[in-house]
Write a structure and sequence with these properties.
The protein is α/β, with parallel strands linked by helices. The chain has helices at 3-17, 21-29, 35-50, 52-62, 72-87, 92-105, 112-125, 134-138, 142-151, 156-163, 180-189, 231-236, 253-261, 274-286, 331-334, 337-356, 377-386; strands at 170-173, 194-196, 202-205, 222-224, 243-246, 266-271, 292-295, 310-316, 358-368, 390-393, 406-408, 418-425. It folds into three domains: 3-126, N-utilizing Substance Protein B Homolog, Chain A; 170-224, Alpha-Beta Plaits; 231-425, Vaccinia Virus protein VP39 (Rossmann fold), CATH 3.40.50.150. The structure holds S-adenosylmethionine (SAM). S-adenosylmethionine binds next to helix 13 and strand 6.
Length: 427
């Protein structure tokens, strides 16, 4: 299979059908055996998502009329071609001929000349990529640029710049298997360069690698998890034998971390999405951990739980995921401005309901991978306002102890953008 054709198909699914790239990409990659080929298809897809407005403009400037309907896939293919010319070291002649061949494979023989012509034109002229408006200049929808500018008047450009970087690979050491220092030594033995992160079990790799190269990965020695997400376990701080709810658990990264930290807890891992919930079970199995996995609604706990109230609740709420754009560049195009108010409403419902299920004296950790205040500090400020028995407990890592919660910005200590607020219920 031609790699450019596979990339174009995945991009088509995202841009025309609203499918997430993390779903669309593996469907195309399964046609490939070689891990290098799989990585190149991923690079082409993620690259196009990062620079979509500029690539789009470059192509439309070279064409007299846009491709429509079924021919749209050839537009996506041209994006792939243009990305190669501007942003990769692939020799231009190879980029162009392979992209033209992909056009043939996609059964648009009649458009091969157009593909060749447009890409040759771009190669010859190498026009400056357009920067005439915020969307083009920052390769980010104008509404996100505006929201970030308002939220972070001094840092918004850095936040956008960080959201375009290739993300690092983080590991979470499994304390039940070995100490972090022991695992760092094992990595050094197989010549994988790595350093310790700021949270207790975090390991930052100098460059991403295939998990199969990681010592004892399949036995559960480590898991792949961003450094920011790894703060959840120590901030919730589960104690021996406590009853803990992970209210939005799938795919289970934080559930597993909680159990590794304190294996005696009774953990109830709930998620609304049955398919994603299967990944919780798979992760628990790989790590030899046990939890009660429930398919249910965190805004209607009464419907599926007849047990006691919980000692601690992790609420890793559904959110815009604007903090993880560097990992999932397609989020920029899939997320719409109106989604934010809807997500904030859903978060409001879930947090209020979960609070009813927290024991007096119990702790709730509210978390999102968003960097938008509506989902984070404004959400928590409003919650505190309407919830007299809730107190916010500052997190040591906050730069300003008076802030409502801890907002991590993308790239800070190499981590994803993330938000945590720790709330305690009066006795
Ligand atoms: C940010 S993800 C959770 C990530 C997870 N905590 C981890 O660390 O692997 C949010 C999850 O919330 C789930 N979700 C959304 N609405 C929900 C609801 N009403 N009840 C339970 N889960 C919900 C989504 O299916 C999604 O899996």
């Amino acid at each position: 299979m031609n790699l450019r054709a596979l990339a174009a198909k995945a991009i088509y699914q995202v841009l025309e059908n609203g499918m997430s790239l993390s779903v669309a990409l593996p469907i195309q990659q399964q046609h490939l055996e070689n891990s290098k080929d799989k990585a190149l298809v991923a690079e082409l897809c993620y690259g196009v998502m990062r620079y979509l407005p500029q690539l789009d403009k470059c192509i439309s400037d070279c064409m007299s009329k846009p491709l429509k309907g079924k021919q749209r896939i050839i537009h996506q293919l041209l994006l792939v071609g243009c990305y190669q010319l501007y942003f990769t070291r692939i020799p231009s002649h190879a980029a162009i001929s392979e992209t033209a061949e992909a056009c043939r494979q996609l059964r648009f023989e009649g458009l091969v000349k157009v593909v060749n012509g447009v890409l040759r034109n771009i190669q010859r002229q190498q026009p400056q990529l357009a920067e005439d408006n915020d969307t083009l200049k920052y390769n980010t929808p104008a509404w996100i640029v505006k929201a970030l500018r308002n939220a972070y008047p001094d840092q918004w450009q850095q936040v956008i710049e960080q959201s375009h970087q290739r993300p690092p690979m983080w590991l979470r050491n499994n304390v039940q298997s070995q100490t972090r220092d022991q695992y760092l030594a094992q990595l050094a033995e197989v010549e994988i360069e790595a350093t310790a992160g700021t949270s207790s079990e975090a390991i930052l790799l100098s460059s991403p690698t295939d998990v199969n190269r990681l010592p004892h990965f399949s036995d559960g020695a480590v898991s792949v998890q961003d450094g920011a997400a790894q703060w959840a376990a120590s901030l919730l701080a589960p104690q021996a034998n406590e009853l803990i709810l992970d209210a939005c658990a799938a795919p289970g990264g934080k559930s597993c971390h909680l159990l590794e930290t304190e294996p005696s807890i009774k953990l109830v891992a709930v998620d609304f999405d049955e398919k994603r919930l299967q990944r919780v079970s798979q992760n628990l199995e790989r790590l030899h951990l046990n939890a009660e996995v429930v398919h249910g609604d965190a805004a209607n706990i009464d419907a599926w739980w007849q047990g006691d109230k919980f000692d601690r609740i992790l609420l890793d709420a559904p959110c815009s995921a604007t903090g993880v754009i560097r990992r999932h560049a397609d989020i920029k195009w899939l997320r719409k401005e109106k989604d934010i108010a809807e997500l904030a409403k859903l978060q409001h419902q879930i947090i209020d309901h979960c609070w009813q299920w927290l024991k007096p004296g119990g702790t709730m950790l509210y978390a999102t991978c968003s960097i938008l205040p509506q989902e984070n500090k404004q959400q928590i400020a409003a919650f505190l306002e309407r919830t007299p028995d809730a107190t916010l407990v500052a997190i040591a890592n906050q730069t300003d102890a008076a802030d409502i919660g801890w907002q991590i910005l993308p790239g800070q200590d190499n981590m994803d953008g993330f938000y945590y607020a720790r709330l305690v219920k009066s006795k």
